Write a sequence for this structure.
């Protein structure tokens, strides 16, 4: 079977609202094409990479009490806050973190959200393995963990939260590379109490080359999704 083509774009540093608006526009265009099949327009796949300025985002069913700072404190610390339409609870996005937003038409892959989430996890697990780190899944908790079965040692390295409309996905994953983990002290990450958050930098004891890690994630994304990433300038 011919590999699906996924248009790739590294957006660099971009504020959360602008990236959200871009995702929404790509999703809506794909949904429009599905709604008028007689036009013969095919849906397109995208994978966006971005680094956001410090921001906390809350999933649609999340609890704002998991943000431990007041609105005034958020403003004083120059941290934005958004209540989003993705799944999951509270998480942090910031510099030196790879945030990936796949906008995929799952009907061209498989119509199984659970499989989709496991495949995103697998992309990160494979990337971590290239650095000699064993990434694992934690039962009942979406994302990628280290030592998930060792009480007191569990630490999350990648958060995942998605939205799907007419089998078109948006939102995605946040992979901590050289991320300033102190920002997680002001939230209850993903609404999970008494579990740590970590990064590649913390686990390896050295700063990582962001571009190198991005290339590994891209290559593993192609492998897991049996797709071909094509760099494209999005206007």
């Amino acid at each position: 079977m011919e590999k699906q083509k996924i248009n790739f774009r590294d957006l660099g540093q971009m504020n959360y609202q602008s990236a959200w608006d871009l995702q929404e526009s790509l999703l809506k265009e794909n949904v429009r094409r599905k709604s008028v099949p007689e036009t013969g327009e095919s849906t397109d796949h995208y994978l966006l990479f971005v680094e956001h300025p410090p921001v906390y985002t809350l999933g649609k069913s999340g609890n704002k009490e998991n943000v431990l700072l007041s609105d005034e404190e958020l403003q004083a610390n120059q941290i934005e806050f958004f209540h989003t339409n993705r799944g999951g609870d509270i998480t942090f996005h910031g510099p030196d973190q790879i945030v990936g937003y796949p906008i995929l038409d799952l009907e061209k892959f498989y119509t199984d959200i659970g499989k989709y989430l496991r495949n995103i996890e697998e992309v990160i697990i494979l990337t971590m393995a290239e650095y000699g780190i064993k990434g694992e899944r934690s039962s009942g908790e979406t994302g990628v963990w280290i030592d998930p079965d060792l009480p007191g040692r569990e630490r999350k390295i990648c958060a995942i939260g998605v939205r799907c409309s007419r089998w078109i996905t948006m939102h995605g994953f946040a992979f901590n590379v050289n991320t300033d983990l102190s920002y997680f002290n002001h939230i209850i990450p993903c609404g999970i109490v008494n579990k740590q958050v970590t990064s590649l930098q913390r686990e390896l004891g050295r700063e990582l080359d962001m571009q190198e890690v991005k290339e590994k994630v891209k290559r593993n994304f192609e492998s897991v999704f049996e797709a071909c990433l094509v760099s494209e300038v999005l206007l």
